[in-house]
Specification:
Blueprint lengths: L7 H28 L2 H9 L13 H28 L1
Helix pairs in contact: 1-3
Amino acid sequence: MTENKITLTGLLAETASLNYQLLRLQIDQLENELIVCIDPLQAMLETPENKPGDTTDLNLPSIKNKLTRLQHLRFELNQADQLCRLAA
């Protein structure tokens, strides 16, 4: 009977663990989307003059939004990690 008993602590621990895993996957996906922007951005910063067409593949507002989202996800991941530790 005790094996089938669901405890609030166990449920909290499982939920925190799943939330942590989901956040980690979202961060990995976002980092993979951003990594392709590194070389073009670096080239743009190293070029003294911005030539037309050099940044056609870069959507700077989109990159900014992704970086902001990444920052928020990392904050949430830190909170989820703390919750996992408390629930353990």
